[in-house]
Design a protein that fits this description.
The chain is mainly α. The protein has one domain (3-199). The protein contains 9 helices and no strands. α2 packs antiparallel against α4 and α2 (37-67) packs across α8. The longest helix is centred in the first third of the chain and has 31 residues, at 37-67. It is globular. The mean pLDDT is 94.
Length: 207
């Protein structure tokens, strides 16, 4: 597919369409349970999963385009910052639903969370905010190239780790949750392969 055919679904329009879809689906899911605690918890789980997908696409985009260059992977790499902002929006809905859960059912909320969820989840949100704010040319420039790289690399791997732990700890009760680890392991492997291939100098065979 030629790159121009992707033009419509690019940049801020891509973000607006995906973010609106996430908001609409979240309202619909909560509405199916009359906006009671079950519906709110379903939204927490739904946005954890949409965030997983968007995070893996954004964090794996450059490696994917390097290993399999084609129209789709180039489109994804071009739009990875907008996919990243959509990930932040998805996690913004996660936060709103968490606050609603705490308000509607304080006892259930206390049972579902711990000090560790605040500490590790809080660090996760701090990274998401810092990475989102510095996704734009002006803020990225103000931060400087090497600090930007350190922030996005550390934050990316921290979030990967947090998704692993948050999904992984549910595997003993629900073994199918192991499926959520597949995209995370795949993104990690893609980044390692891509980094290794970038470091290996290409030798040209001359007779
Ligand atoms: C202070 C911050 C956070 C709090 C208080 C929090 C709270 C919660 C709660 C209460 C649930 C369980 C919902 C239920 O069982 O009904 C949940 C699920 C989850 N959260 Fe968060 N969260 C936070 C941040 C994060 C972050 C930063 C990530 C990822 C980077 C994340 C990923 C997940 C995942 C993967 C699930 C499991 C969803 C599922 O069962 O499919 N959370 N969170």
């Amino acid at each position: 597919m030629s790159e121009s055919r992707h033009d419509w679904f690019e940049g801020w329009r891509l973000f607006a369409v995906l973010a609106l879809a996430l908001v609409a689906l979240s309202i619909w899911i909560a509405g199916m349970r009359q906006f009671e605690v079950d519906g709110v918890r379903m939204v927490i789980r739904f946005t954890a999963r949409t965030s997983l997908l968007l995070f893996c696409l954004a964090f794996g985009a450059a490696a994917l385009a390097r290993i399999w260059p084609n129209a789709f992977t180039r489109w994804l790499r071009r739009n990875r910052r907008y996919v990243g902002v959509t990930f932040a929006a998805s996690h913004g809905i996660h936060a709103i639903a968490i606050a609603a859960f705490a308000g509607i059912d304080p006892a259930g909320y206390a049972a579902a969370t711990s000090i560790a969820s605040y500490v590790f989840g809080g660090i996760g949100y701090a990274f998401i905010i810092a990475m989102t704010v510095t996704l734009f040319d002006r803020t990225a420039k103000a931060l400087g190239a090497s600090a930007w790289r350190r922030l996005h690399l550390t934050g990316g791997y921290y979030l990967l780790f947090q998704f692993m732990v948050s999904f992984g700890k549910r595997i003993p009760d629900m073994p199918l949750y192991a499926l959520f680890l597949i995209p995370l392991v795949a993104v990690f492997a893609l980044r390692v392969i891509s980094m290794a291939s970038a470091r290996t100098p290409r030798t040209i065979e001359t007779g």
